[in-house]
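Aim 2 progress update. The chain analyzed this quarter is reproduced below.
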Amino acid sequence: LSFCHNISLSLSLVAFPFGFRQLIHSELLLLSRLLVHILSPLIHFDQYLLTMPLPSNQLTASPDMCAHCFDHLLFSLNGHSSEYSDNHHLSTTPQTPTITSSVTPSFPNEKTPLFVTWEKFSHSQKEYQLRGCIGTFSKPKLHEGLSTYATIAAFQDSRFSPIQFEEVKLLKCSINLLVNFEWANDVFDWEPGTHGIHIFFRHPVMGRDCSATYLPSVMSDMNWGHNDALSSLYRKAGWKGEITKKLMQQTRLERYQSSKCELTYEEYVEKYQNGRQGLSTGKMS
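Predicted structure tokens:
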């Protein structure tokens, strides 16, 4: 509009006949009005887009998800099916809340890769120690995926004996929802403390495909850099020989991040008895 006005003003200063100048001015005025009619919706739409929040398809781990895992662990330890119904009851002990009705998860039931970790507090070490960790890079629906891998991690992690009822009061549950997957340029193309890593390679002797992963928190907890983490990860994947430059060049590494949340058993009891009010959002790791 300013452009049309400036043209009209410039023409008024030129020595054209008055009638011609008036005709040009009228035509430019009509043009400016036409432009307003055409562009106004686009301008408003553009302003609308700028003020809209960006869409987010990324799930965030929450304590509710950890509580969901504790629910299924307790149901399993009491000999019940992990499916909820109004007839499910837990035996009452000083450390175990009584669940007398169905509990409907409040978090979304989206599909996502996930890991469930159980840790047990050691009085001698004064810290939580790994008690079971199982997950999947496929994308199960979150409700079923958490309940499934909570019980698998508790009872079927081959590194540990199944969790017993008397251990529950010492447990902490951690949930990792895996996000932002991307292929690295090489095995060193990732940031400790930020990325989880998943390596794929062919066994130099047996010829079979090997793979293993560490969640982002592993490198932070162990205070590992690239070399320590990769050395341990190759061993975890099944390679006990020398980690050569050729092997690393033939390895593909996928890096990812995770949304993580933790909940201790004491927190679970407290939040449950309060109707699970005030549960906050997890943190990115």
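Strands lie at 114-122, 127-136, 171-183, 196-202, 209-214, 252-264, 283-284. The first strand starts at residue 114 and ends at 122. These observations will guide the mutagenesis experiments scheduled for the next reporting period.
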